[in-house]
Design goal:
5-stranded antiparallel sheet; nucleus; 4-stranded mixed sheet; 3 domains; alpha+beta; SH3 type barrels; HIVI-bd_sf; PWWP domain-containing protein; LEDGF_IBD
């Protein structure tokens, strides 16, 4: 029979690449459960088949690991179970409740029989109430036949020995900066409730209530932690609202916490670092550029057994850097270490790296073809993004030409021009697009004062009045488009000369940075000329696209 877990149940959650980890159920999202992991404070989404009640599976899943967060996880869940009076398992809790009911009944009977006495002998039974409530949780409930039957069933569902050995070697869990905070909150709550032990079962939701609202937002963070600029701790989500749907789609595709990178990307990082070192002062003054980083980001390699393992990129987490120069040098050191480790592992199957869970994942649960497809898919996605950007730019330039054609010196069609201006306003463009096509900004700027050439056209008065009305609408619509330009290109408000002067200064810097680039390279730019993305794009254009996975 399928097990249905409830909110606040204490369980073991299994995620590939890690040992079964103590966790607390936060919510049920259909076929999957959102859980919060003890010891780290991270949350994740786990299938119901990968959840197991804690008490009756402790002996089976607990590993002799020395990781602090792993040890803390067991300490925290034991305290939580003690406070709640059980782990939420109906089998063990029913036995516990029977024991509790029997205890309460005997206490009431004792009180009734002693009620006529004037003696103060009622005090000792009252003092025994608290320990009798606690005892069934650990002793009586743990020895029930229901437990043995459930344990036998779980043993039948246990993964094969190979999977167990894989999990045993995966003592990898990220060290989160604030992992001790929930533990301290739990202990403070425990101290406050020690005086009211009889209310323990009613107060078992004290810990999760503050987190329930944000459960859905945090549910994917254990699988994907996106870094944009400066890295923060994994249990504090960054502002990724714009990419939330994309991350959810990824989590459906990937049922494990491993993200593969290509050998080519590591070599690109080494080349980029050399480029950065040539302009050290420039890149030390720049903020860290956005990157996608994951706790278990690996370079996949094929072992002699045919299994695909993974060399971990990051041995510390979270990542944090002061500037782009520091980050580039870190990426270089990671690439050099991982590529050297790959050479060592492929030459010797007895390498100490393979047995080190801090550096290596023995099985990433992917075939060689799947790895190649995954890397190829990522490259195609990026090319599609570039194609969409260039399409927007083409539309921007095309609309500019159409508007100029509608508002010529010999004749004018302001109504059509207004429509094209509105189309331009609806486009989703960015600063680099406007810098590449500054003539568009200049044209719209001039149209804010458009009056036409009516005096030379010898128009009848009625037509002239209509044209004047349409010309006013052109000026109004041009002002709206120009306002959007101002929103896209951020400049100081108090700068002398206003937006146009500030934009002109940015344009001069942009053109200076473009020196050394060919006209084709400039037209294909999707980022600032001296940015990391632009540099990697140029590398990619100059080299053949190969996925090297051995």
């Amino acid at each position: 029979m399928k097990t249905v877990f409830k909110e606040d149940d204490k369980v073991f959650a299994k995620i590939k690449g890690y040992p079964a980890w103590p966790a607390r159920v936060l919510s049920n999202d259909g076929k999957k459960y959102t859980v919060k992991f003890y010891g780290t404070g991270e949350t994740g989404v786990v299938k119901d088949s990968d959840l197991f009640y804690y008490t009756k599976n402790k002996d089976k899943f607990q590993k002799p690991l020395k990781r602090k967060d792993y040890i803390d996880a067991f300490t925290e869940i034991e305290e939580a179970i003690e406070k709640a009076g059980g782990d939420g398992d109906p089998d063990t809790d029913s036995a516990a409740n029977d024991s509790l009911n029997g205890t309460d009944k005997s206490i009431k009977t004792g009180k009734k029989s002693l009620g006529k006495r004037k003696s103060t002998s009622e005090k000792p039974p009252q003092e025994d109430i608290t320990p009798k409530k606690k005892k069934p949780t650990k002793d009586s409930a743990a020895e029930t036949p229901a437990k043995n039957a459930a344990k036998k069933k779980d043993d039948e569902e246990t993964p094969v020995k190979k999977a167990q050995q894989r999990n045993r070697s995966q003592g990898e869990k990220s060290d989160v900066d604030e992992k001790e905070k929930p533990e301290k909150q739990t202990r403070r709550a425990s101290q406050k409730r020690n005086k009211k032990e009889n209310d323990d079962l009613d107060d078992q939701d004290v810990f999760p209530t503050k987190k329930t609202k944000s459960t859905k937002d945090e549910s994917k963070e254990i699988e994907f932690v996106t870094i944009e600029g400066e890295q923060t701790s994994p249990n504090k989500r960054q502002d990724v609202d714009s990419s939330k749907e994309k991350l959810e789609e990824k989590s459906d595709e990937l049922d494990f916490k491993v993200e593969v990178v290509s050998e080519k990307s590591l070599k690109y990082n080494i080349t980029y670092a050399k480029h950065v070192k040539e302009s050290e002062s420039l890149y030390k003054g720049r903020a860290v550029e956005p990157r996608e980083d994951y706790i278990n980001q690996v370079l996949p390699i094929q072992l002699p057994s045919g299994t695909i393992g993974g060399l971990k990129l990051h041995t510390t987490w979270p990542l944090k850097f002061e500037n782009e120069y520091e980050r580039a040098l870190y990426d270089e050191s990671v690439a050099l270490r991982v590529l050297e480790a790959k050479s060592e592992v492929t030459v010797s199957s007895d390498s100490s790296i393979i047995s080190n869970p801090e550096l290596f994942i023995p099985d990433i649960q992917m075939t060689l073809d799947e790895v190649k497809q995954r890397i190829c898919k990522k490259e195609i996605e990026w090319k599609n993004i570039k194609l969409k950007r260039l399409t927007v730019e083409a539309n921007l330039v095309s609309l500019d030409a159409k508007i100029r054609s509608c508002l010529g010196l010999d004749s004018a069609n302001p109504k059509e021009a207004i429509g094209h201006l509105e189309e331009m306003r609806q486009l989703i463009f960015d600063e680099i697009m406007l810098k590449k096509h500054a003539h568009v900004v200049e044209m719209v700027r001039r149209l804010r004062k458009y009056v036409g050439n009516a005096k030379e056209w010898n128009m009848p008065e009625e037509s002239l009045n209509e044209f004047s009305t349409q010309a006013e609408k052109v000026r109004s619509k041009a002002e709206q488009v120009y306002t959007k330009f101002k929103e896209v290109v951020k400049v100081p408000e108090d700068i002398e000369g206003g937006f146009w002067e500030a934009f002109s200064e940015l344009l001069n810097t942009y053109r200076e940075d473009c020196k050394g680039l060919t006209e084709e390279q400039i037209q294909l730019l999707c980022a600032e000329p001296r940015s990391r993305i632009a540099f990697l794009d140029t590398l990619d254009e100059n080299e053949s696209e190969k996925v090297s996975v051995y």
